[in-house]
Fold each of these.
Amino acid sequence: MGTNFENAGEFVFMQTKPVSVIVTRFQVFAFKVTPFEWPSFRLGSDVSFSCELSSLPEGTTLQWEREGDPTSNTTLFYNNTVHMVIHSVDQSSNGRCNCALKQNGTLLYEIYNTLNVETSTFNMPVTLFRESSNSSEVEMMCRSSFSYRKASWTKGSSPAEAPATLTSDDRLEIDRFSSPTFKQKDFPLRLSPVEFEDGGVFRCNFNNNLMSYVQLTTIQVSASRGPPGGQSVVLKCEVSEVNGDPVTLAWLRMEGRTGLVVKKDILTESQPNWTLSVTLPSLQRDQLDWQCAVFREDMLRASVPLRLRGAGGRSGIPGLVLPSPLKGY
């Protein structure tokens, strides 16, 4: 029998003569990690992994672990699959990532691979997804192996479209944008907090050379009352734009660390808007914790939590519903 994921399951060893008797049973579990091969990942990109177990034994947990100090990670578990996103990777992100199956804290099995990040961003486009909230932030990398005299960041398809330019000469901070002092090779751009309108293209140039191209897609979630006189609550998740490959939005109701998909939709570039809404007829105690997950090519790109509260801040009260986005990065 081949070592295929589909061959996992229960196997029975039987005595067939003189009578049929079950001698013993075996349970075979299979792991599947995506991507299977880990190349060198682009500096400043968001790196997504998933680890799927054919079935989850009762009392066990499946989780991603990282050696050393973890970077800013997003994790999500559903359908026997644990997803992880490591945001804006750099050399500090290098190291081993383990997908571990544990029972009561005891390791039963693990599978691992090693993360390696490239050292420069030279004209390497990346797409980043970030939540828009008061506590969110994003860092866009721009780094070269060679020395340059000047550096600048602009937003838009061309510098002419950008209302302001952050340069290494005299402008290291504009509104919510900031950069450290340029040291001839490295000029990252930090944006905090991230607002929904910040979505778009950011370009970094060293002298006149395009060094970094970042497509920032922002995500916002909200909760609001339904029609007057009713008890319904409307959850809304929206992305600033969809470019190229389709994006899947999914609303998940959280039960502890496990998500249950309530609704999902595939969004394409040609659609007039990029939103996914869920209407709850009334707010129940098991409907307070939600996440809007963003997938591209079946890989998690971002997950934005939304916690609902009732009047007076008490959970489960079908009165005034207040969205309370939690920091997801």
Note: The chain has three domains: 5-117, 124-217, 220-325.
Amino acid sequence: MKSIRWVTGVAGAMLVFAAATSQADVVLNNADVTFNGLASNGYLHVPGDELGNQDPDKGITPFVNNNTIYTNSETSTTFDIGAEWEFLVRNDGKNNTEDYEGLTFTLSAETGQKAGLWELTVSDNDPNTLPSIPFTMDFLVHMHGGNSNAFYFFDDRKIEAENGADGTSTFEIKFKNNGGNNPGLSNFDIFVRDVRSVEDGNGGGGSSEVPEPASILLLGAGLLGLGLIRRRKLI
């Protein structure tokens, strides 16, 4: 039986995330976070006093579904990303696993939320039932550090592995405060919606090959990475 494993890689981007409390001190743009070399679709900065409740279900989920106007720095315009976001998983120094639409997501950190390697592993529990890998999904990434929150919206991003040679998809976030240092990250949250399998030409539910986890790496200490490198092996 063949199995396929996706492991992530890292690429570069820069985010100036000021430690000061004033929103005017924070400079963000779409390209602060990239996925597969493409910038996010939009961003939202929220000072800490406007989002004091960091509980993902009682605080952040209602906030993201009621504050849907984001900025597109490429066009200098604002737009509505829509609601219906669901909290998926958080890492605040502890590993957490959640099931969503038949997929299992595990977010872990190598040395806690302030340093080391973060990994979100996506496992397809039943490759013969939709949704299955490959799939597309809307992602909303939330970071809380110091007295600031940053949200980045990714529309219809595909989780897949290409046949033949290794393929890589990445996003990275890098934090700097006014002193040029990496501020501590209190929590990293992922919200999702609209998961859809990608038709592979064989009629939907996938082949008899059982995929191993698709992995998303998130690098702490001000460096977060998301990527996918397919590795193929025989069992």
Note: Residues 2-39+84-139+155-234 form one domain.
Amino acid sequence: MNEVTSADRELFAEFARRIEAALKDRIEGEVAAGELSDFAFGAEELASLAQEGAALLPARWPSEGGD
């Protein structure tokens, strides 16, 4: 099995930050336009989960399956 490195963790954390920023931009745009959709209500939760994901990476990558 391959070990997860600090670079892997930072890459995932950056990915999570970008997801969060994109979702927040979308929500703010919809609020400003007065067109808040159902999507926006789940977006903040999804962004939060993405951030938490960076801290939840396993100590090692699985040896089989997945990408």
Note: The first helix runs from residue 6 to 33.
Amino acid sequence: ASTCPAETIDPQAFRRVCENLVQNAAKYGDLSLPITLSLNVEANQAILKVKNFGNPISDEKLHHLFEPFTRGDQAVSTNQPGWGLGLTVVRGLVDAHNGSVQVTSSQEAGTSFVLRFPLV
């Protein structure tokens, strides 16, 4: 297995991305089930995956999840504090590193955020 060169990804940006995703997983997921993080290197990419279980994100919300001030149904229904900017920040930092972010969510498989960063 290869290692991720430190100069490829800004450490503060990477930390912010991880914090935002884990905080959301803890805020909106089922805390009786684990939140998992994995970081792997495949085909010249660093791949970060954050996964949790709980109520899934609706398909409609998935399409708008990274837009500023967008909050999931659970955030609204449970009166969780927040501005709906955390995932916008995640997308911006990933884009700034020429990366990509994908999210899938279902009751059975949980919610997964998969981020891919090119290694140069």
Note: The two ends are 16 Å apart (CA to CA).
